[in-house]
Amino acid sequence: MKILGLLNAPWMIDQGSLTEITQEYINHMQGEKLDFKALLTDQQRGRPAFEVQGSTAIIPLKGVMSPGMSFFTFFFDGTSTKNVQKNIQAAIDSAEIDKIIIDVNSGGGAVEGAFELADFIAEAATIKEVIAFSDGTIASAAYLAVSGASKIYITGKSNQVGSIGVIARRLDVSKMNEMEGLAVNEFVTGVYKNSLSRDKPLSETDAAEIQLMVDKNFEPMVADIAARRGMDPQQIIDMQGRIFIGAESIEVGLVDGVATLNELINNEAGAPILNQNQRANMTKDELKANHPELFAELEAEAEAKTLNADLSAQAKVEERERIQGINAACFPGQEALAAEMIADGKTSPGEAAIRFNAVEKQTRIDAGAKIAAGMPEPVAQPEPVVTDPKPAEPEAKTPEQEFEGSKELQAEFQDFETYKAYLDATQAGHVRVFQGRDE
Questions:
Q1: Per the domain annotation, does 181 fall within a domain?
Q2: What is the DSSP string of 17-71?
């Protein structure tokens, strides 16, 4: 498998090792290219497949694990999982070998090949005694690989065991391409086809897809380890990828005891240290009589586990309702956005509805703007002509108002009563006017 293909694939490895691998890859890409096949041939020339002491085969599982001989095998003194399988098979086929010790010092490696090696070792342990031993680290894919061994031993206080989990790292060189004047155009058949492409910035859709890929690899890893070590899968999930140091790894059930390599070869190792999973093989009465404090501790743990199981069941119901709520609030065409919010494990249906509405509103605004941009300019209309209205007729005045408003009438009639009598007589036809005088 090509180096970049491995780097972009999910890993079962501790964080420090993956960081070191990534940096070495970058150095390799920026510097002089090496002929790894030639180097690996020289490195392997004359090296025995594995060591045999008496009737014990000692098979190494060291450094970064990858499916075959590669960049990692050279730079990190890594291990080909296929070669480990071949060595174990050779030891099984040998009539002179009755015990196999897998000497482990590895932080893990690629997902590819790890499950197959784990299954092979578990099957081998049903044919001959297979013991996993470490004077350093047994982490992630390396732990998965030896979880089916007959027993797992460490040397003492400083061993690192665990980091059970999956990690994916996506290199983004789009800015570097831009600085160098490079433009990479990718034409794909689906939104997830180039989620791991290093030549484009990471999108929310890419992140959700990569996380889903990591989760899908983690589930069978947990199931296999739990089954082979007699553990509750939830116990492994609750470890959250933690590395346990020395005796801690025995207490949580990942390791069976402490021994040196020579003690294991010479069958001088003491009985495995009783861990919390193996204690369950004792009867309840024996444990209560001989270890009352431990009995009380385990009873408390059992009560807590029951409570956690109830909480876990409730959490599953709540998660199902959360997913249904998000899907119900989704507008047509927003399925990818719904998948992202479901995958993040925290977006509530209410938050999803707000986000869906905002996206839909913006979509309609954009559509309206697009339509408006294609419409012809409006024709200017002339301003309407406003004509002055017909002046209102003045209101008719009363005789008294006419008298009060006319000095001539006041001078001629002296008072309103005389003027009123004149108006009445004129209306009755009793008055005629000649040359301006009344008769």
A1: yes
A2: HHHHHHHHHHHHHHS----HHHHHHHHHTT--SSEEETTEEEEEEESSEESSS-H
> What single-letter DSSP state applies at residue 385?
P
Helices 335-343/349-373 angle, 10° precision: 150
State pLDDT tens for residues 76-124: 567 889 999 999 999 999 999 999 999 999 998 888 899 999 999 999 9
Half-sphere exposure of 122 toward its Cβ, with a 13 Å CA cutoff?
17
Domains: count for the chain? 3
Burial of 106 (0-12, 13-18, 19+ CB in 10 A): buried
- The answer to whether 101 and 58 are in contact (CB under 8 A) is yes
Q: What are the b/e assignments for 171-185, b being 16+ CB within 10 Å?
A: bebbeeeeeeeeeee
Helix (H) or strand (E) holding 357: helix 349-373
d(CA 210, CA 202): 10
Amino acid at 31: G
For the record, the structure tokens of 235 come out as 């116990």
Residues 332 and 195 in one domain: no
Do 247 and 319 lie in one domain? The reply is no
Structural domain contains residue 385: no
Q: Is residue 336 part of a domain?
A: yes
Picking from 168, 124, 131, 11, the residue whose alpha carbon sits closest to that of residue 78 is 11
Q: What is the pLDDT of residues 28-77, one digit of tens each?
A: 565 555 555 554 444 444 445 688 999 999 999 998 888 866 555 555 56
Rounded Cα distance between 233 and 217, Å, is 14
Angle, CA 69 vertex, CA 15 and CA 229 arms, to 5°: 55
**CA dihedral sign of residues 251, 255, 256, 259:** negative
Beta strand 108-110 with 129-139 is unpaired
What's the pTM value of the predicted model, to 2 decimals? 0.56
The radius of gyration computed from the CA coordinates of the chain, to the nearest angstrom, equals 46
Please list, in sequence order, all residues whose beta carbon lies within 8 angstroms of the beta carbon of residue 12, skipping any fewer than 6 positions away.
108, 109, 110, 111, 114, 140, 141, 144, 165, 166, 167, 217, 221
Residue 140 lies in a domain: yes
